[in-house]
Amino acid sequence: MAYSDLREFISALEKAGELKRVPFEVDSELEITEFADRSVKQNGPALLFEKVKGSEMPVLINAFASMKRMELALGVNSVEEIATRITDYLKMQMPQGIMGKLKMLPMLADIGSFFPKITSGGPCKEVIKRDKFSLFDLPILKCWPEDGGRYITLPMVFSKNPETGKRNCGMYRMQIFDDRTAGMHWQTHKQGAAHYRHLLKEGKQKRMDVAVAIGSDPATMYSAILPLPPDIDEMMISGFIRSKPVEMVKCETNDIEVPANSEIVLEGYVELGELRTEGPFGDHTGFYSLADEYPVFHVTCVTHRKHPVYPTTIVGPPPMEDFYMGKAIERIFLPLMRLQLPEVRDICMPAEGIFHNLILVSLKKAYPGHARKVMHSIWGTGQAMFSKVIVVVDEDVDVQNVSEVAWKALNNIDPQRDIEFVMGPVDSLDHASRLINYGSKMGIDATKKWPTEGFTRPWPDVITMKPEVKTRVDELWKKAGLG
Ligand SMILES: Cc1cc2nc3c(=O)[nH]c(=O)nc-3n(C[C@H](O)[C@H](O)[C@H](O)COP(=O)(O)O)c2cc1C
C-alpha cells in the first residue's frame, strides 16, 4: 500500500501501536536524543513530540527504528518481499507464445507505474516563504553534547547530474550555520559530491542548484539512502517499492523537482568553491566524527505544508534507527548482489559493524581461492567498497547468527594464511584510517580449506549428536522432570 504522505504513515504507525505521542514540552537540544536513544534501545515505539521548545512544528523520530516499522514504511509483511519482486523483474524474459506474453502484461503495466510524474502543484506549496524565513524556525536537533551545532539528519537532498541531467537524491546531514546557510555533508564518494566536482571543474557557473525535502511518504524518504548506481533515479525506485509513481513538483527558485507531498522544502544553491568547517558530529559509528571542510548550502526559499511535521533521526552507539534502515538495505540488495555473485548464499551486516565495518558472507565454495574472489568483488561494488572487514564462511554457516560465525570462523583460520589486507577507498567516517577516505581493509577467508589450496591435513567435522539419541532423550528429558 502506498502512503500518500508522511501523515498517513504516522497514522498507520499509531494504529499499529508503533507510535507514542509526547504531549508536553521537550527541548530539541539533547533531550529528544535521550528519549530516542532510550526508546530504540528498549525496542520502544516511534516518538512524536508535539511541543518542541522554540518551534511550532512537531518532531517525529524513530519512525523506521524496528523491522516492523521498516515493513510498515515499505508496505510489506517482510522486506524480503521487495527482494523477491526485484528478482522477479530481473528474471523477466520475453516469454514464448501468446499466453505467456499475455501473462506478462500486468508486470509490464506495473513498470509504467514506477516512473515519477511531474505535477503543477502540491501540498508542499501550501505555504511559500521567499522572505522572512529562518532555518531556526525548524525544530532541528542538537543531537549530542559535543556536536558542532544543530543538524538536519533526515533530509532528501536533490541535485542533477550536470552531464546527463539525471536526478539524484541522497541523504546527507546538514549542520545549521545561521538563518539561511547550512553545511552540505555529501561525502566525496557520493553522487551530490560528484555533481559538485563536475561543475567546479567545468568552471562555467558559480552555483549548483540544490533542493532539500524534509518529510515525505516513507518509501520516498527511505529511497534517499539506497546505494544505487549513479543516474538511477531514487524516485523511480520509490515508485517501484510503492507501486505508485512519486509526484514531483518544480521548486519556486530553481529547476530542481521535489516530492509534491513533502512536509518542508528548502530551495537553494551551493556556491561552488565555498567551503566551511562542518562538525564534529556524534555519528553512526558511535563516535564523534571529526570536523572537516564541506560545501555550504544557501537557502533562497522555504515552502511547506500547513502545520508541517519535522521528521528526524539520531545516530550514535548502536543499535540506532539507522541499523534497521541498513538491515532493510542488506535484505533488499542481496538478490542484486547475487546476480553478480550467485555463489553468495547470504550476507549480514551486524549492528556493531555500523554498515561497512563488518560484512559476514556465506558462500557455496566451488574452486580454490573462491572466498577471496568474493571479497574482491564486494570491494569493487558501489558503496560496498567501504567494507572494512569481510568474513567469508561456508554455506552451512548461518551468517545471521553472529555468534556461530565467530565460533566457526575463529576455528577455521590460520591467520597468516587466511587474512588478506588491501588498500583502497574507505568510509569518510572511519576515524582510524591513516588518511581520510583512504586506508586498508581486511578479508578473512574462514571457509574450510581444500587440498587444492595447499591444505593437506584432515579437516574435522563439527560435533553433533546422533538423531536417535536426541529423540530418546527428548522423552527421557520430560520423564526426568526437566520441562
Ligand atoms: C540517517 C542517515 C544519515 C546519513 N548521512 C550522510 C551524510 O551526512 N553524508 C553522506 O555522504 N552520507 C550519509 N548517509 C549515507 C547516504 O545517504 C547513502 O550513502 C546514500 O546511498 C547516498 O546517496 P548517493 O549515492 O545518491 O549519493 C546517511 C545515511 C543515513 C541513513
Description:
The chain is an alpha+beta fold and 483 residues long. It folds into two domains: 307 residues, Pnp Oxidase, Chain A (Roll), CATH 2.30.110.10; 113 residues, UbiD C-terminal domain-like, CATH 3.40.1670. The protein contains 13 helices and 23 strands. The strands form six sheets. Strands 5, 7, 8, 10, 11, 14 and 17 form a seven-stranded antiparallel β-sheet that branches. The chain has a five-stranded mixed β-sheet with strand order 19-20-21-23-22, with helices on both faces. Strand 20, helix 10 and strand 21 form a beta-alpha-beta unit. Helix 4 packs parallel to helix 9. The model has no long low-confidence stretch (mean pLDDT 96). The site of flavin mononucleotide has 21 residues, from strand 8, helix 6 and helix 9.
Keyword list:
7-stranded antiparallel sheet, 13 helices, binds flavin mononucleotide, 2 domains, alpha+beta, Pnp Oxidase, Chain A, UbiD C-terminal domain-like, 483 residues
